[in-house]
Amino acid sequence: xxxxxxxxxxxxxxxxxxxxxxxxxxxxxxxxxxxxxxxxxxxxxxxxxxxxxxxxxxxxxxxxxxxxxxxxxxxxxxxxxxxxxxxxxxxxxxxxxxxxxxxxxxxxxxxxxxxxxxxxxxxxxxxxxxxxxxxxxxxxxxxxxxxxxxxxxxxxxxxxxxxxxxxxxxxxxxxxxxxxxxxxxxxxxxxxxxxxxxxxxxxxxxxxxxxxxxxxxxxxxxxxxxxxxxxxxxxxxxxxxxxxxxxxxxxxxxxxxxxxxxxxxxxxxxxxxxxxxxxxxxxxxxxxxxxxxxxxxxxxxxxxxxxxxxxxxxxxxxxxxxxxxxxxxxxxxxxxxxxxxxxxxxxxxxxxxxxxxxxxxxxxxxxxxxxxxxxxxxxxxxxxxxxxxxxxxxxxxxxxxxxxxxxxxxxxxxxxxxxxxxxxxxxxxxxxxxxxxxxxxxxxxxxxxxxxxxxxxxxxxxxxxxxxxxxxxxxxxxxxxxxxxxxxxxxxxxxxxxxxxxxxxxxxxxxxxxxxxxxxxxxxxxxxxxxxxxxxxxxxxxxxxxxxxxxxxxxxxxxxxxxxxxxxxxxxxxxxxxxxxxxxxxxxxxxxxxxxxxxxxxxxxxxxxxxxxxxxxxxxxxxxxxxxxxxxxxxxxxxxxxxxxxxxxxxxxxxxxxxxxxxxxxxxxxxxxxxxxxxxxxxxxxxxxxxxxxxxxxxxxxxxxxxxxxxxxxxxxxxxxxxxxxxxxxxxxxxxxxxxxxxxxxxxxxxxxxxxxxxxxxxxxxxxxxxxxxxxxxxxxxxxxxxxxxxxxxxxxxxxxxxxxxxxxxxxxxxxxxxxxxxxxxxxxxxxxxxxxxxxxxxxxxxxxxxxxxxxxxxxxxxxxxxxxxxxxxxxxxxxxxxxxxxxxxxxxxx
Length: 895
Fold this sequence. Notes:
By secondary structure, the protein is of the alpha/beta class. The strands form six sheets. Strands 15-25-26-27-23-28-29 form a seven-stranded mixed β-sheet, sandwiched between helices. It has a six-stranded mixed β-sheet with strand order 5-6-4-3-7-8, sandwiched between helices. A six-stranded mixed β-sheet has the order 13-12-9-10-11-14, sandwiched between helices.
């Protein structure tokens, strides 16, 4: 009986494909019949149910297969063919796969696409079982947990982060499982946001109950994974951490009071166990990110200065310019130094002194650089030792790298610089480790122990004997064939092999009468007879077992060596860290030599004095032969706290602001700086409001973003802050903008902390502030007016600018001539009208003030009354109260 059919059209957005489904309308008498499940698919479904949110790579013979939705996603990402299993049957399902030996090609693509990938391998030899092969997940690879070289970037850390929302603070932890670096901190949401921006983790773990809160505070720009809430408990975290580090407490790490951060750290260890990463003895330490040890830069400043990331794909970042490191460890550490500039003068000076020594001793510099080039990624190599994923060839890389450290150690010990001598003394020679590897592993070791010939000759007598049997086997059989042929007089005699009889001697029928009596006949063919001898059977047993035994012995010996190397994990990690530091310092030295950077003079003052400063990025982008126009900047807290910079677009105002911030930042990283000279007191916070950027996805306009960033600055300034503001207020109407810019400038001037400030603006009206506020000074980026155009001199000079030259800039941009002419005509009309209205207003105001002086109905008193009545005493801070009082006082002085 035919059933009525219904055609359903289903669109699955996450899978990006259309599926036509024919559904039979069941009658009351039609029984529900479940599709038949094969043993293989039953096994697959059981394993998939344990990892529902991961793409399961299911090993079937020589292929890794994916099924259903996983197959659709994998085919789209990998560009492989999507087929069907059981086509036309009730159990039909999508299927896509690739050869198992191509795992290192395809796995990175899946992980980089943000997928969690569960690798399900065959846990037994298919030949050894008559039922379905036993299978299980041997590794769960996620964006934040990977040891695969194709997934990792050599110059960047691959951090897994965990965030815990506590009652008093937000805890955060970062782990790079490929290097063993484990970091922890806690603070307010703004501080955690800054750390997330700095470390850019590949994956973040979050408690399920805080999913919405995380997205609202930190955005949805990260790969996130949500864990059960019970994992984020203090007792569980402390137990996990102390058990891992085999300690009774965490006091020895100096992190015991970071409760919220430690809870986040415990969740990371839980996640590692859940993803089958149980060999983690290379995680030997957990370090605190000490907030008070580093210069504070909020996420806006990090973005605005384009330190190591830019939203413009063609932009050159500061890191691109200053990174002259020669090792992966150095490149990763340099990013950390850039994200976390120092505040400790002694530590900064120590770095400067090393650079000065290397700069004046070029031979030492060149020798150290040469040796660093010979060093592989020690951090990741020793991590592979801990996880058992290192190859024989990589073990040799480890040995060669440790060999290359010895000349560096000697050069450092012989230097006259104290910091270098400390590094030299701390570097571990690892003599026994280097010797052990040298005598155990072949020089030309393979990429895998399975390929054989990994263990050196002389390490194991039985292995050497088996190799001799294996290598001489062919020659022995050839000699036996020739000997038996000569003895029997059978010229066409052949020694051959098959899986049924093993080795045998084949004789054609024409010569079978010459066969010796001691030969044993095993098989009769149409044209020949096959025989065996006692000698041949004895040798067969030796040669057939040799290859298998060789593999077993080599694997066993290599595993023993790797386990022994693991006892040196801490020594190698220490060496890796010291070489990374030295690499960064030689990078700074080379940078200073190549670009004529100078050593900044740091002191305890609050001053900032830059002579002939240059922008480190812009000067490298200029055409050959075009010099960068350098500029002086001086700021202090007594005479020149705020510099008001006016000048037209394209004149270089923003460049001066940015270069000031970058020079300060580079100085406190420990680098030399692009200037003729720099004298500065330590800066503890750098704030920038430079450049416009809409946040449309969050429903925020340019002006709203500008105000958010400026509010963050005003609420966090300190006496050692450096504040850089560019075109504040331009996102709204002119008079609103001028009012806001004026009020912000006045707030900064009157604030007790008196932060050093550069304020670039189009609003020439702000030049009047110099008259009223003693620590505000006017400067302008000079231009030269020619007949039909302007020439940008790009030099910062004393005094305010009276023109914007916006129309000239429009002309330079190629605006149609008719538009330029109309704009010039309108500008003259507006300037004339504004000037007459201003004069009339001034005269009127002057007359009114003269008539009402000392009058109780004086408008000034009304203004003061209005100011006082509008104060909300309940929310007014002490600083704001003093500033308001000072403002009223100034109004009376004017009177």
